[in-house]
Amino acid sequence: MKTWIVTGGAGFIGCNFARMALAEGVRVVVYDKLTYAGNLKSLEDVAGDPNFAFVRADIADRAALDRAVRGEAAGSGAVGARSYYLQLPSQRVWGEPIEGQPPEPLDGWFGSVSAGGARVLAVFGLYPGRAGFTAVQVDGPRPGRLARQDGTPLFASRLEGGRAAGLHSVAGAEELLELAYRCHALLGPEGPAPGSQRLTAA
Ligand SMILES: NC(=O)c1ccc[n+]([C@@H]2O[C@H](COP(=O)([O-])OP(=O)(O)OC[C@H]3O[C@@H](n4cnc5c(N)ncnc54)[C@H](O)[C@@H]3O)[C@@H](O)[C@H]2O)c1
Known about the structure:
This protein is an alpha/beta fold.
């Protein structure tokens, strides 16, 4: 059985994400410092679930995080590749992460990247009329060189709304995976590398 650690899992996005993961049969460890924003009431309905565990700790506490990743939270198994939320550059990316669904401005993505491949589980945006994130399930190796049929370069404006606003755009699962790899590559051991505020075109 898979185990995911959801950092900030007592907050708005985290508790909804944790609930969704539990419903899909994933064991969940919510790791949260319970700041002013965090509230365990938001997880009351899943607190009794045998696949749910809670750790109150700071993500800056390396030792506590390592213990949680090793599965030392009550009832949790060891966690595989570390997943995290990655905020996109301040210039918003206009995306159609699920083909055929309306495009939306993307703020960041949630998932993991390891030597074995990338996984994007959710994208966060500001789409009017729905709560902060859209669940996606995109897994795979790096797509490599992607060519668009309309000849526009990767991450250049392409979608209608993005073109109008001059934004970068991401259309479909493969481009989302490629975006995840590029963002991940910008992260050094100490966090985002200098110059990581921009996406580079293909
Ligand atoms: N809500 C949205 O629509 C939206 C959209 C785009 C991006 N985001 C980003 O996603 C993230 C989560 O958003 P949210 O709305 O769920 O926020 P939130 O404030 O409801 O929840 C944040 C959670 O993180 C916990 N936390 C804070 N500092 C911590 C620390 N040092 N260690 C462990 N836990 C800590 C808090 O206790 C809280 O439970 C934020 O970074 C936010 O900027 C949110």
